[in-house]
Structure formats: structure tokens, C-alpha cells
Predict the structure.
Amino acid sequence: MTERQYADTMRGMDSKDDRNAEITRLYVAGHMMQDIADHYAISKARVQQILRKHGIRGADGGLARRLAERAKRKAGK
């Protein structure tokens, strides 16, 4: 991500609370921690800290969520 893209991303955020809520929403929606970290130019460890602060466990999103959805689709066939 370029500095301009980062600035454009952050310009739409009113505060870190908004950013952290968006990070939580993205993870629960199935995005990977590293992808989120790259998008916001923060470390994967920081994403983990933010998720933990919001009570999100590893099984609540990311790869675990993707695998669970895949298993449901497979079982429904």
C-alpha cells in the first residue's frame, strides 16, 4: 500500500475506535489478519491485540470462518 492509499484510507476514519471496529468487522467477515494488517499498515500482532480487546477469538473469523463456511456448503450438497 502506498502512502497515498494509506492516507486515503485513514482520511475516512474519524478515530482509532472507528478503525478498530472496522478491523473487527473485516475479521469476523472472514478476512485474514495479515491482509487486514497490510491494508491498515499495522502489524499482524497489533490486529490480534485489537481483536482480543474486542473479545474476538481466532475461531470467530479469518481462516476458521472460511473453513467453517466451506464445510457447511459441502455438507449441504
In short: The longest helix spans residues 62-76. The chain has one domain: 3-76.
